[in-house]
Amino acid sequence: MDYSRFIAKASEVFKASEIRELLKVVEARKVISFAGGYPDPQTFPRESLARIAYEVILNYGDKALQYSPTKGVTAFRETLVRYLKSNGVKVDSEDDIIITTGSQQGLDLVSRTLIDPEDYIVTENPTYLAALTAFRTARPNIIGIPIDGKGMKTEVLEERLKELKSLGKRVKFVYTIPIAHNPAGTTMSPDRKKHLLELASEYDFIVIEDDPYSFFVYDEADVTRLKTLDQEGRVIYMSTLSKILSPGLRVGWILGPRQLVDVFERAKQSMDLHTSTLSQYIAKEALERGVVGETIDKAKRVYRVKRDAMLSALSENMVENSWWAKPVGGLFLMVWLPPGIDTKAMLPEAVDEGVVYVPGASFFVDESGKNTMRLNFSYPSVDEIKTGVGILGRLVKKKVGKT
Ligand SMILES: Cc1ncc(COP(=O)(O)O)c(C=O)c1O
User: Quick one: average pLDDT of 42-65?
Assistant: First the structure.
């Protein structure tokens, strides 16, 4: 039976990605994958979490296995707020935080509760693909702002804001990943952060700061959050334990003005009632016992080596006129190849040679970026990184010869 007639029009935004389809095929074969966004499982604190889970269920099972408040388990929220404050994130009140089922739910909540169809919203171009998908469900106009080694080009944003204003239109929010951007690997400079907040004030918009990576940077870097710099309550900050403890627990949070957090809470109630109570109890203990801190230390050690291996392999193998930012953190970097090289068209050849990556175009608001590819360095081994980048370098050289 063909079920298409039963499917709502609105679900057309959830397009099956050709790339995901390809990755499914790839999974079955032995190829070096730069495509996923998985943490290295050796960073997972398995024994500590096993002990915590056992104790939590045994000692607090009455509560930990029960339903819990939509906004999150109070004791966990208190622990989390202390942790955030001690890491330099400004929290005005404990009521300003809501626990989410990963940051992905935070993005979905923002989309459902803040965007009306035809609203103007802004993202970096490129930006996190799953954020684009979440926002697109609400059918806004999305404006993409280019980035360079210092993050979003806020001078371009200012131009766009002026243009829109002259047309009597305004932007509702700007979504940004300031630190260790996914996919671009860039970090916003202090000047640009300041400029962005000035623009938010001048043009009266909100900033959505998506920050999964600032807790584990590999180099000296200014990780001051927009949330901390914000004097006007214009920043909605979201983050997650996915990369600093375990993505499988599905624990994230949104920190924002109380009035908006209340709206998120009401929307979340109809989505999943609450984030897993058990995960929240485990996360609380992991924070209090220093397990998150240990995971971060390990992640930094493991990923710094892998990032450096990828950077040297790229310098050795990539053709002239390619560009990539050195990521101070995170799991990704993006390579801009010379114009004319189509990374989507090149992918099947790369797979045949034994490497897979994500062609960059889908991270771009306007599907430009055909000459880009996103490379993940957290999951493959150092040897795979060397071999895989070598293969990509050879393929790209062949293509350059032909363009
Ligand atoms: C920028 C960004 N935002 C959100 C997420 C989603 O994270 P979570 O696992 O908490 O849903 C990711 C995951 O990779 C990400 O890179």
Answer: 97
